Amino acid sequence: MIALLVRFVLGPLVRAVYRPEVHGVENVPLTGPVLLAANHRAALDTGVITFATPRQVKFLGKAEYFAGKGLKGRALAAFLGGLGYVPVERGNAQAGLAALEAARKVLDAGGVFAIYPEGTRSLDGRLHRGHTGVGALALATGAKVVPVALTGTEKLQPGGARIPRLAKIGITFGKPLDFSRYEGQDYAPAIRRSVTDEVMYAILEISGQEYVDTYHKRPSEGVA
Asked: Where is the Phospholipid/glycerol acyltransferase domain (predicted)?
């Protein structure tokens, strides 16, 4: 029920207020597993992707957000679930594997999963080297990978503003990438890196950002 409210009530309302420029939405396959690989400009990127994509999208979310007590805690958990967040424990040695497994379950069921290959939002506006999780998921599930470029979302909450401000934002969906030519090679690190680099180049082409071939350092807790 919450998911339906988010999709058919809150979604149209947000689109009417912010009027995001959406391009290439026809590039998102309407059936089958799809991996949306996006650049990451702001904390609200997830909401923008959710409201602009024709299919329900799943994302990773911190498990502690779903563990709140009382009515407020349950309401937050329900809302995050409606937005498409999948709770995953973080901060331990198995966190990365748990995240990939949660994403794989969504894709194996024929769903849509969104991932930020940079691993964290860009604080300098540039596109940074992608982590190979996106390559591993694409190879393991056979999902089509749709590159996504977000623009202007960093202006929605300047200076950590609590209420999102009006700003010109855009989202572009690129042509889907098919990596079936690498079938059976999903455990090869070199292939994962090759696939990831191809995805990052596709994001670069539609985002127009400057590319930096180094991983972005994760912001301190409370900043991301």
From this structure: 34-153
Residue 81 counted as domain residue: no
Task: Give the domain CATH number at 148.
Answer: 3.40.1130.10
| pLDDT tens for each residue of 56-112 | 999 887 766 676 777 877 777 777 777 777 777 665 556 677 888 889 999 999 999
- What is the three-class DSSP state of 191? helix
| Assigned domain for 217 exists | no
Q: Centre a 10 Å sphere on the Cβ of residue 78 and count the other Cβ atoms it contains.
A: 15
* Residue 120 resides in a domain: yes
Name the one residue in this structure whose structure tokens are 């350092």.
217
The token duo for 71 is 């009515």
Residue 64 makes CB contacts below 8 A (sequence gap 6+) with none
For the entire predicted model, the pTM comes to 0.86
Backbone angles phi, psi at 61, to 5 degrees: -135, 150
Count of domains forming the chain: 1
Q: Is 212 exposed, middle or buried (0-12, 13-18, 19+ CB in 10 A)?
A: middle
Q: Are strands 144-151 and 170-173 parallel, antiparallel or unpaired?
A: antiparallel
Of 116, 107, 84, 77, which Cα lies nearest the Cα of 10? 84
- The dihedrals phi and psi of 40, each to the nearest 5 degrees, come to -135, 105
